[in-house]
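2024-03-11 09:14:02 DEBUG pipeline.ingest accepted 1 chain
2024-03-11 09:14:02 DEBUG pipeline.ingest length=1047
2024-03-11 09:14:03 DEBUG pipeline.predict start
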Amino acid sequence: MQALCAGNGSNFLRTSAYCYRSVRPLHCRVHSRHVHMQKAMHGLQRAKAFMQTIRKGTLRKLYRTAMQMEVDFFSAQPGTGPPPAIRMLVVDFDDTCTATDTTSQIFNTATSATVESSAESEKADVQNRLGTLKDKLVQNYVHEQQKLYAELLPEGATNPDAIDQQKATAFVDALTQFDRRMNQVVVDSGILKGIPQGRLKAAGEQIGLQAGCLTVLTRAQQAGVPTHVVSVNYSTEMVKAALQRGSLNIVTAEGVSAEERHDVVIHANELTYEQGISTGDIIRRVQGGSDKDALMSELMHHSSQAKADSTDGADANAEASKLAVYIGDSSSDFAPLLRADVGIVVGQNKRLRQVAKAHGVKLLPLTIAPASGRGEEGALYEAESWAAIGAFLFGPDPSKALTPHPGSGPGAKTGIKVPRVMTVAGSDSGGGAGIQADLKTYQARGVFGTSAISALTAQNTRGVRGVSTVPTQHLSDQMEAVLSDIGADVVKTGMLPTPEAVMAVADAVRAHKVSTLVVDPVLVATSGDSLAGSEVAQALKTYLFPLATIITPNLPEASALLGNRRVSDLPTMKQAAKDLHKLGPQYVLIKGGHLITAPSDPNRSSSDSQPSPASAPSHTPSASSAAQDSESASANSAAQDSESAAASSAAQDSESASAQDHDTAQDDTHDSDQPVSELNADSSLEEAHLQQQASSQHTDTDRAEQKTAQHNGASESATGKASPSGDPAEKHESDAPAIDVLYDGHEIHVLESKRVHTHNTHGTGCTLASAIAAELAKGREPLTAVQRAKAWLGEALQASAPLHIGRGPHRPLNHGFETTDWGQQKAPLDLQKPSLDLRLYAVTDPACNTRCQRSNAEAVRQAVEGGVTLVQLREKSTDGGAFVHEAQQLVDFTRPAGVGLIVNDRVDVALAVGADGVHVGQDDIPAKAARALLGPHKILGVSVKTVEQAQQAAADGADYLGAGAMFQTATKDSSTISIETLHQICKSVDIPVVAIGGITAANAKPAIEAGCQGVAVVSAIFGVEDATASAQQIRAVIDSAMERRAF
């Protein structure tokens, strides 16, 4: 018995043997670090009773079996045992190593090169022609591939129980023939012509790589493991440039022995060149799965032969047991994955899993892959990440160990990852826009900001008094100083006054391998005036757009970038986004602040894959109304950034600028076909000209103040007061939502938000782009980053609406509104959102309490004693006064116990008693409204059933999601969702998720395995007699599952 209690128990063991099911509760309880001595004694008593029922020998035998299972399990965990001996590592490149589509980058590079070499008058036509060609090639490939898979993997076909090698070979051959045929289609199209040799090297340096991939390749090289990277990419030059980072030595396959040099060897196709320009054809080396398999076979044979020649006897046997490993992610890797001693699948490619299942191939956890010899026949091994692969192949990564910062004292935090964003933009002395707005935004959004200044302005809310362009060399010096020391996760650009400045930024981004670039192409002011010459626009398209993660033009800027084409309604915004995407950025955000539309159709989806055929109706409001709409629109989508104001005001005085702003808004309304002002090649920011205009402006202060007063008065109609003309159409227009369009290369997202009417709009363009950059630096996906940035900017505008900073027409906003409320004249707040432990989330139920004959307070007390980490008070039929009284009782008990209290639905009750937060459903108060009422420092939970609801809730400010119902339950009539849907919800958001609906100790574990941070329980705790014991049982299951997942 003592030996049994002294064993190294674990919650990870799984067995169907009767003895193990009986022994395991005691074994886990005694050794769980969360269980008190009383529970251990209870377990001992159970074990004693158990021993009386079976023979001692039987117990010993079965216990040994259980312990061996534990040893086998822990021995299989990555990094816990000695790493396997590896004789060769082969890694697929495309999507396995990369995080971006490399084929599109080659097409974009070819397009840019061809456009550059075209006559100025033909550039736009060439751009459109090649963009259309690229779209057709992609659509044809997808269409033909779908037909092929439908033929090779017919629906309803029976899947074999064991690998069908003959069928698998035929599948790979058919897929390879398809890939070769598609490559010929690309060659015949001519899209690969015209690329200067060396150009793809620069494109390759900007390819995003999967986290941890380079670390694994570097560790392989350091360990002396022959390493090969295989790719169906058209350019070896691009693949080599993408991987040649850090200490890696990268060489191409021709005439190189990796075994001799310990280099990483590239096997890929290459473009053919004549006189340094690509001909459009390719040297075909690796086109599909059969080619990869043949290469894998050759490399394995060569490796085995080389080792056999250099060893004998026992050494030869040891060498023979070393592993040949292949890492891949797609169907074209199917054959080499099977040929390798250990084939490792990384990523979530559903097609590969479909192919494996159809051919009788099993996918097993990487944790049970062999450390020597060959893996199980007909089996591949799944890895969750490159970090897991590195741990399996080479053991724990020593570089990940946390080390103190030099000079840090005992107890100091170590290993903290600080998100960093660098802004390259103009300076606004008035503090409302430019780098000042950027840096304030970074601080407010929780990232570390640095800057490089491209121009210096002397300006205030009335306009610009002077501008000085920073010399290009000094701009480069600023970027080099910061990037070589502090570095940057994201670089965001604003006003770049000259083509040389644009090229300097592009050079710095490439030289320092900055993977994320946000480009706010400041070209055209709200009035339609040019802020930069056509040379700057062309430089942006040529040098920065191909490197950009996202570009954020407003409507006039989008028009200017597309040859002054009209962009004035939702269909043209969608098409503009698609056309700008062809210039190279991964995402395009068209800011619709200048757009004047009717209220949106409530039946229209927020995401469209095709442009709407209908145009937005045109309107003819008065000049005053048009001016108001132009202003409020810019408030929502950044038409009035400081750099725009700077260049616009430098060209004319504040009175004329304001008047022209109003006139332009009116003209856009009356004649939607009128193009914006053409970009003037002579409109570069020349200092002497700017100083002259600034001097003229400075003498007109009185007129500017008069115009400001008129402007402020006109604004009253936009805020709901009577307009000067009394035209009811004015209010109709001003209430229209602000609409932006985001395109990711596949899907168009129409993003609507409430239009905020305020004069505090100065710097909103800079602020939005900077907020997006901050969210990207924190690891958000671009769509989520844009949604969060827009939501935050809307809150900032709303909070800033009553402020009066300066006497000009466009005043700055309060970036620190979450901590400083100037309207209430309060000191800066020092607030922190309550901690959120969702592991065991108990939801009260009056009916359960009635059946169990106990009060709500008593039920919660028992649940908390059992290990509940968060409590939700749900009272659907209790009146306000009684609800507040009951909530106050629970707060008084839960808070000293360190357990949070959430109130269901009732924001007023939560605020009245100081609860930690509120939970709302899809039919309750909207999450966005709840967040506005709660403020930023309370917890907000939202119930969801779909990925779309989850993403919307996250964008609206939710701190966590309750997903379900998972199972039918008597406490609430609700439809159920599958475990796969739960998994997809967890993956789609970066906030925690809890599963709810019929959760018990028996079914809680799959929810944690699906990615949840906890479970929400009602009747399994409050509907049983012993709530404490039930909570303990569920908590043990959750802790065990979470511990295993973390391990």
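2024-03-11 09:14:41 DEBUG pipeline.report The mean pLDDT is 77.
2024-03-11 09:14:41 DEBUG pipeline.predict end
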